[in-house]
Write a structure and sequence with these properties.
alpha/beta, two-stranded parallel sheet, disordered C terminus
């Protein structure tokens, strides 16, 4: 399995569509066998789904994500775990241990005005403001 976590300075980046890099982890029988970084190279929102699909990602762990991006990922067979925050490697580990589940509050349904997905965070650990 290949897992991608939105990533900035060691923590889960709060907004999938604006993520500049992903921590990619390849696993085998719940053991990490390889870690690499995937740069978005300016791709955003829907283009990120294609980038992750090309990288053969099976699962994305992120903070906030819009419904369009979630749908694009699902159409490509990529599972989404949203609402994550804090240390990216710890989030991946929690997923592999069965402790991290998709949090519907991690979805962004509106992007007008001054709203950002980081507004969903109730503490600052792992949040990008």
């Amino acid at each position: 399995m290949k897992i991608a976590a939105t990533y900035e300075n060691g923590v889960i980046f709060a907004h999938f569509g604006k993520c500049a890099q992903f921590l990619l982890v390849k696993t085998d029988q719940n053991q990490i066998i390889e870690k690499t970084m995937l740069m978005a190279d300016g791709a955003g929102h829907g283009a990120l789904a294609a980038l992750l699909h090309k990288a053969q990602v099976d699962l994305v762990i992120c903070g906030g994500i819009g419904e369009g991006a979630r749908s694009a990922l699902h159409e490509l067979g990529i599972e989404v775990i949203s609402g994550a925050k804090g240390n990216a490697e710890a989030a991946i580990d929690a997923y592999m241990k069965g402790h991290l589940r998709d949090d519907p509050s991690g979805s962004c349904h509106h992007h007008e005005g001054s709203h950002s997905c980081a507004d969903h965070c109730h503490d600052t650990e792992g949040c990008h403001h």
